[in-house]
Target: Adenine deaminase
Amino acid sequence: MHPPLVELHLHIEGTLEPELIFDLAARNKVTLPYADLADLKSRYAFTDLQSFLNLYYANMAVLLTEQDFTDLTRAYLRRASAAGVRHAEIFVDPQAHTVRGVPLAACINGVAAALRTSESDFGLSSALIVTFLRDRPAAEAFDMLTELVAMNAPIVGIGLDSAEVGHPPVDFIEVFDLAHAHGLKCVAHAGEEGPPEYVWQAVQLLEVSRVDHGIRSLEDPLLVDYLVQHNIPLTVCPLSNVRLRVVDTLADHPLPAMLERGLTVTINSDDPAYFGGYIDDNFTAITDAFALSADQLATLATNAIHAAFITDARRAELLAEVAAWCAATD
Ligand code: ADE
Ligand code: ZN
Model:
């Protein structure tokens, strides 16, 4: 069994299960380019990040109304609660919806409505992080962040995602400066497919508190030293890395080397509907692949609690839950 879980790297659109795609298409009278469910499911063999993103963005065509975003988020919360998730920080990609004509408010308010009752309905705390698409203009992200601030959107921070190579963090300095000025937390995908240089830029130019993925950091020993010294957490997503061919097999994943080097690693699911498993499945997979001990699992869980954007009181509660799990597991 795994310890109480904290999820810090989860794209809500990446929880859009094939069945829900068909349900929402029927509700919204959207014609899908798939013959049936089996046809859709046959398209989940990815060759790289872009091949996944193509399907991920295409399937968003079924998300049109505020209710769609609420239903999607509630489905995730239900699944997460069953998996033992105690706190979740959720990414949403508003530009992927506004470019299709979906109002920003429908997307944000729809997800936020579900998160508002995550405690009472599903027994877990939650927070929302808006992620900007790095393969779209930085000026568009800047304008959207300005709009989010003006509408007092219930977000804890911002992030950066989508096609990495060729879209370095340095292009988004103004966006992240604006976020910092408004007291928002900052994270960024870096070192997933992109080089260690992008991780350097994320931490030094964007001043992020966490790096999403970051597994290619291992190629640069000085960068590893920097991340360790500054205690910058990495939100690692093992099943995602396998399915997007960042590593050949789970056995080749650098997770053990990352732990060995003293990096603050956390385990997350990224886009569970696309990558064959939720956060509990990621924990099970790495436990089996690397014969992790209860102590190592507790370290991963504790790392995530320290890396989470939560109050000291909530942090103390979650740490106590992990301590209770350790006592029961001994
Ligand atoms: N958007 C959704 N999942 C992503 C990933 N793994 N990398 C970059 N952008 C993403
Ligand atoms: Zn991601």
